[in-house]
């Protein structure tokens, strides 16, 4: 399994050449450049601290080309427990220094050496064990898991104090290390999958060479797996993955068991028994333990879960927000980072990027929503991780409804087995309202004025009723070349129930370059002031305007009517 792709974060153009050199070491890494100060970065950000903290929370390795102190002060409030942080490094802008800061157990020193080699400098490694022995004993390579971290720290401390060690089991990564070996040493590095009680004089390292094939119908599945392993005298830490029949792909019990055991969940075609399922999946001579419900297969070498069966396909429908990177929620950023395929209207897909070379973009016309939704399910049903992109919020006049409609119409079991999730975004109406103040601070109604998918008569009726109810109004798709007359008719309907002085907010491209915000009134508003990229917010009878010192206005709708309550027209 590949290591997570790092993010390279720079503050100015002077760092760009160094960043490009580092990027050659990690081809999938994106260079994040500060807006208005970096030209040519792969991704733009506006706030250094928020960007670093987002990446840290997503467990993304961070290579920051700036002073180490800036990184330390930024991440200090988030440091909770040593051993769980992603690698974090500070690199001098000119590439003259590479300083590993965090993630000693996540391979930060390995990264530091790789980066330093590319820059032809020495990495500033300060970890005593690595300096003395040339390796971090507490950070075994992929395919192996450390036993008890606290006992491991004591073990390394004893080594540094002058003790020797012996190695029991196969540890090929330690062959080149400068370890003080002695076959009669008190301290021992023990590598093996057997269940073993931790001891102060042992460093236990478990090869992940165990596959557990299960049925989803076992009660208390995590406990049953632990019991079966204990009976076979096999350590839980050696589980590489849990395997089940693909007919049980949508089982919540399987998903929860894999999450509790912190191992990947894979699926294969039903072959009659869990024992045969395990044997066929590994494809080599294995030892099988267990019964008809749980089978344990032990391989000679660590297993790569990505080569066993296939994962449950995932389809996430995401909202980018209005366009600014800082208004995109962290869960959406994480989903984009893990995706194999990204589908959507080309403008929105480009906004979501840039993407790694291994990520596939599927750009379609904005009117092809159902075809796009079906294509997304076809990809996800193959076991891929798929993202469907919407601007704003995916559930507000966007792709979430189309995806669910496609699923509702389908009888394909593989589509219904897909892990489907809808992730929210900041909608255009809310982004515009926030810029203006709080025009939607009380009850409000959101309407699309497009009659592409519903009759204009329905729009007129809803407009009239919402205006009668004295709701603040948010208009999506207010006007276009093919619909030049509808906004005028909509304003005429609203004007039957509102005074000409009613505040109106016009937000164009809010959250994107060139955004504009204008406050006017219902009496002054004409269709010529609006285009398809404008969000129109019409106040209620209680909406108010406050002048600001800079000449602009705050618009708000009080949360209480009080004595201002206006009777609804009958």
Model description:
The protein is an alpha/beta fold and 570 residues long. The chain folds into five domains: 7-126, 3-Layer(aba) Sandwich (Rossmann fold); 144-207, no CATH class; 210-306, Nucleotidyltransferase, domain 5 (2-Layer Sandwich), CATH 3.30.420.180; 314-426, Tetrapyrrole methylase, N-terminal domain (Cobalt-precorrin-4 Transmethylase, domain 1, 3-Layer(aba) Sandwich); 429-564, 2-Layer Sandwich (Methyltransferase, Cobalt-precorrin-4 Transmethylase, Domain 2). The strands form six sheets. A six-stranded mixed sheet has the order 3-2-1-4-5-6, sandwiched between helices. Helix 1 (16-25) packs across helix 4, helix 12 (369-380) packs across helix 13 (399-409) and helix 16 runs parallel beside helix 17 (486-495).
Short description:
This protein is 29% helix and 23% strand.
| N- and C-termini, Cα separation | 67 Å
Domain module count: 5
Shape: globular
Strand content: 15-25%
Give me the Rg, rounded. Answer: 29 Å
Topology:
Elements: E1 7-10, H1 16-25, E2 30-34, E3 43-45, H2 48-57, E4 62-65, H3 68-75, E5 88-91, E6 98-102, H4 108-119, H5 128-133, E7 144-146, H6 149-160, E8 165-168, E9 187-191, E10 202-207, E11 210-214, H7 221-231, E12 239-245, H8 252-261, E13 265-268, H9 274-282, E14 287-290, E15 294-298, E16 314-319, H10 330-338, E17 341-345, H11 346-352, E18 360-364, H12 369-380, E19 385-390, H13 399-409, H14 413-416, E20 419-423, H15 428-436, E21 437-438, E22 444-448, H16 456-468, E23 472-476, H17 486-495, E24 503-508, E25 516-521, E26 534-538, E27 544-547, E28 553-556
Helix pairs in contact: 1-4, 12-13, 16-17
């Amino acid at each position: 399994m590949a290591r997570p792709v790092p993010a390279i974060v720079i503050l100015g153009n002077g760092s760009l050449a160094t960043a490009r050199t580092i990027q050659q070491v990690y081809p999938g890494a994106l260079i994040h450049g500060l807006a208005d100060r970096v030209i040519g970065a792969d991704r733009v950000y506006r706030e250094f601290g928020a960007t670093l903290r987002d990446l840290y929370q997503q467990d993304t390795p961070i290579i920051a080309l700036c002073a180490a102190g800036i990184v330390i002060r930024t991440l200090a409030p988030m440091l909770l427990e040593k051993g769980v942080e992603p690698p974090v490094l500070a690199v001098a802008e000119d590439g003259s220094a590479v300083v590993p800061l965090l993630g000693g157990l996540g391979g930060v020193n390995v990264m530091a050496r790789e980066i330093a080699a590319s820059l032809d400098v020495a990495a500033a490694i300060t970890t005593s064990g690595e300096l003395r022995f040339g390796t971090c004993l507490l950070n075994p390579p992929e395919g192996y898991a450390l036993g008890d971290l606290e006992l491991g720290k004591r073990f390394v401390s004893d080594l540094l104090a002058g003790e020797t060690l012996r190695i029991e089991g196969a540890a090929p990564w330690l062959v080149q290390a400068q370890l003080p070996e002695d076959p009669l040493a008190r301290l021992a590095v023990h590598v093996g999958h057997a269940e073993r009680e931790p001891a102060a004089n042992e460093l236990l390292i478990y090869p992940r060479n165990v596959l557990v094939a299960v049925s989803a119908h076992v009660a208390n599945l995590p406990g049953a797996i632990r019991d079966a392993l204990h009976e076979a005298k096999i350590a839980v830490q050696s589980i590489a993955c849990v395997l089940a029949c693909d007919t049980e792909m949508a089982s919540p019990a399987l998903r929860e068991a894999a999450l509790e055991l912190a191992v990947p969940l894979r699926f294969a075609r039903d072959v009659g028994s869990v024992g045969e399922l395990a044997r066929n999946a590994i494809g080599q001579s294995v030892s099988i333990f267990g019964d008809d419900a749980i089978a344990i297969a032990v391989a000679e070498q660590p297993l790569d879960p990505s080569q066993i069966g296939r994962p449950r396909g995932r389809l996430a429908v995401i909202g980018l927000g209005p366009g600014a990177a800082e208004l995109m929620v962290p869960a959406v950023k994480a989903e984009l980072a893990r995706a194999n395929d990204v589908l959507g209207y080309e403008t929105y897909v480009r906004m979501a990027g840039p993407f790694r070379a291994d990520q596939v973009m599927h750009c379609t016309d904005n009117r092809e929503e159902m075809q796009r939704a079906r294509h997304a399910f076809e990809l996800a049903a193959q076991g891929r991780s798929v993202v469907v992109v919407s601007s704003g919020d995916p559930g507000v006049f966007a792709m979430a409804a189309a995806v669910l409609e496609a699923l509702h119409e389908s009888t394909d079991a593989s589509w219904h087995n897909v892990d489907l999730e809808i992730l929210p975004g900041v909608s255009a109406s809310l982004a515009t309202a926030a810029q203006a103040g709080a025009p939607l601070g009380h009850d409000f109604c959101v309407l699309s004025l497009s009659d592409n998918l519903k009759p204009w008569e329905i729009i007129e009726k809803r407009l009239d009723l919402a205006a009668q109810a004295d709701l603040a109004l948010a208009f999506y798709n207010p006007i276009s070349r093919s619909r030049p007359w509808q906004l005028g008719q909509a304003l005429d309907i609203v004007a039957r129930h509102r005074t000409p002085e009613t505040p109106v907010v016009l937000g164009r491209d809010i959250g994107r370059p060139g955004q504009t915000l204008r406050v006017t009134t219902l009496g002054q508003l004409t269709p010529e002031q609006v285009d398809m990229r404008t969000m129109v917010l019409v106040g209620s009878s209680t909406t108010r305007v406050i002048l600001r010192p800079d000449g602009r206005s705050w618009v708000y709708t009080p949360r209480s009517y009080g004595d201002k309550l206006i009777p609804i027209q009958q």
